[in-house]
Amino acid sequence: PTLRDPRVRAAVPIAGPGCFFGPSFYQNADVPLMMVDGSIDAIVPYQENAVFGFGEARAPKYLVTLAGGSHTGFSGAASLLFEGLDNPDDVGCNALGGNLGSDDSGLSLLDLLGGADAGIIMGDCPLACVDPLPRPRAMRPSRQHQLTILSVLPFLQAELSGDSRARDFVESTLAAENQDLAVQFER
């Protein structure tokens, strides 16, 4: 609540860590929300983050799930470097180091973001990269990027410009034309 920028009129977390945001965080979130997540994300697990966050968020809210989408597959470099890998999260998990520790002041990242008073909680957050190996074959990063753009741009057009055709596209056409994603929403 104390860090909110009133200029923000819509939010789109991509593979966001929803398990860190409790009910009091969402009570103060009055902007339309679209979450874009991969169903096999090894770094920010889907169920505990995307599904939990969508359930806690206030309407209007959208959850776009990319079937076989990975966390690392959302990165800009993934299309260039990891397109041929079975699962880009293998690289992402190998690159991870450290955790949500403290800074020089002794405060954790959660405390620096406002802590429990701001709705920032530890929640039921699983550790990253503890999924069974080998990881399942993931969607190609280039396809993840394409689907993300196809989802986010019309959402923002609908929410920021009031474009009803863009809203209809997100709610009715997007998933019908792209069998590798699903859209849930509440308005």
- Give the overall form: globular
Largest sheet: 3 strands, mixed
Counting DSSP E segments of at least 2 residues, the number of strands comes to 3
- Topology pattern, helix = H, strand = E: HEHEHHHHHE
Low-confidence stretches: 98-103
Roughly how many Å is the radius of gyration? 17 Å
Distance between the termini: 22 Å
Averaged pLDDT, please? 89
Could you explain the architecture of this structure?
- The chain is built from 7 helices and 3 strands, in the order αβαβαααααβ.
- It is of the alpha+beta class.
- 35% of the residues lie in helices and 10% in strands.
- A 3-stranded mixed sheet has the order 1-2-3, with helices on both faces.
Topology (SSEs and partners):
Layout: H1 23-27, E1 33-38, H2 46-56, E2 61-66, H3 78-81, H4 89-95, H5 109-112, H6 141-161, H7 164-177, E3 181-186
Parallel strand pairs: 1-2
Antiparallel strand pairs: 2-3
Helix pairs in contact: 6-7
